């Protein structure tokens, strides 16, 4: 767990690998993690990369999701996750943990220094009158993220999250139009991929995939079409966001309620072995 941050050359190699994973015959599948142990479990299950979930991270640190976590705490988790695995790590940095574009660039520099080679950067706004940032403002923040990565000589994979379907209402045609407009503007600003949570209908996925000159990331979970269907519709990246963290916390509550009511322990059946988990957290060493 105390592995050093890889040198720039290794980070650049991992960043290029992450980009390549978006263009394979199968979509990049990301079971999102929120701490070092969940990251190692995800890798042991076969994931080619690790993505963090901002909500899972925030909840584990005692805060709600939605730009409530500070940069220092968020970057510290990224560093722990990145030091725990030997695959590319992409960090959910919400809207950049900063008030302005320059601050987003500072966050990205810190995330790179922590060992991540990708970021999710969303265009949602919290606490203001509008649910989304103006396109120009969001694009400026993405451009700052790209400039920070260029300055660090790491081809960071910038995944621009478009929250039109997630945080606004309206006719589907209008939502598709705004999503495409924003996605194209973000691509021009330096984004590598476009993430559109709130869309899993295969026809809509196909429309967005065809209309964007970038790998499309969709958010899936219970009730969504399976991976094969989403892949056939054009999804290049499929993540589950807070889904696994929510399932884990759901189990925690059910097990606690069972213990406190019936005095039994059935909900704990199927738990991973203590020794297995403990050994999985033995330190790794990337040094020669």
- Number of helix segments? 12
**Percent helix range:** 40-55%
| Biggest β-sheet: strands ordered side by side in the sheet | 1-8-7-6-5-4-3-2
Q: What would CATH call the architecture?
A: Alpha-Beta Barrel
Low-confidence stretches: none
What global shape is seen? globular
The average pLDDT value, as a whole number, equals 96
CATH superfamily: Phosphoenolpyruvate-binding domains
> What class would the helix/strand composition place it in?
alpha/beta
CATH class annotation: Alpha Beta
State which percent range the strand residues make up.
Answer: 5-15%
- The first-to-last residue Cα distance is 16 Å
Radius of gyration: 19 Å
Largest sheet: 8 strands, parallel
Number of strands: 8
* Order of helical and strand elements: HEHEHHEHEHEHHEHEHEHH
Question: How many separate domains make up the residues?
Answer: 1
Q: Kindly identify the CATH topology.
A: TIM Barrel
List descriptors:
lyase, 288 residues, single chain, 8-stranded parallel beta sheet, globular, 8 strands, alpha/beta
Structure explained in plain terms:
The protein has helices at residues 8-21, 36-44, 54-60, 71-84, 101-114, 135-151, 164-167, 172-188, 202-211, 227-232, 243-261, 274-280, and strands at 28-30, 50-51, 89-92, 118-122, 157-161, 193-195, 216-219, 237-239. It is an alpha/beta fold. It has one domain (8-246): TIM Barrel (Alpha-Beta Barrel), CATH 3.20.20.60. It starts with 7 loop residues before the first helix and ends in an 8-residue tail after the last helix.
